[in-house]
């Protein structure tokens, strides 16, 4: 269905695990060359890089740029352009989370969450957009979370960052639309990722609950389906937005949240 993706070049931040890694595999399956980015065990990262490249016959490279450092972000984009000739697809997925009451929140943690979850999107887009505009084609997808649309207690930094991502997405869409560049946001509900597992542990501590109680409450309070959102739910939308079929979609925060924002 998305054969036009074959030969495209993508940069995906935060793609060494979880949703980002699922995105990398989905695009590689469509024939897209990939630049991975993120932290983690070096051997595991290399194993995933080599596996994706071998399984799908595409070029997969890794860049460990720190998403809190603008100069490293700019280097990530320029090195990807040099290695693959261009960047057609930019997926901003890097993110971290830390829960806690705002009046007890650590300032350094706030700054780090804003830097990774919001500011890094600005820096990648600023660096990649000129090339996209010059070629008349670009697909920017920002992963914003359902928390880009609604709020939850104890997540002030994350909610603020993700609301900012939605606003940034709309602005870029308006600025770049006439140049063949689309910019959309994917807003997932709860997905069973390493980030969510850590978040549930922190939330359990903050609320004085067990992790199983937190898990049950998350799904019962938020998801109409009472099920987690799956990687497949998200990758199907990503491929559509990055394809020619997605050219008519821009500036929109797509909720893939099992009914969360329908409340």
How many DSSP-defined strands?
7
Question: What is the averaged pLDDT score?
Answer: 95
Give the topology string: H per helix, E per strand: EHEHEHEHEHEHHHE
Query: Globular, elongated, flat, extended or rod-shaped: what is the shape?
Result: globular
Radius of gyration: 18 Å
Spans of at least 5 consecutive residues with low confidence: none
- In CATH, the topology is named Rossmann fold
Describe the strand arrangement of the main beta sheet, using strand numbers: 3-2-1-4-5-6-7
CATH architecture: 3-Layer(aba) Sandwich
CATH superfamily: NAD(P)-binding Rossmann-like Domain
Q: Alpha-carbon distance between the termini?
A: 33 Å
Using the coordinates above, name the CATH class: Alpha Beta
Given helix and strand content, the structural type is alpha/beta
Total individual domains: 1
How many distinct helices?
A: 8
Strand content: 5-15%
Helical content stands at 40-55%
Largest sheet: 7 strands, parallel
Organism: Parvularcula mediterranea
Keywords: Oxidoreductase
GO molecular function: 3-hydroxybutyrate dehydrogenase activity
InterPro entries: 3-OHbutyrate_DH (IPR011294), NAD(P)-bd_dom_sf (IPR036291), Sc_DH/Rdtase_CS (IPR020904), SDR (IPR050259), SDR_fam (IPR002347)
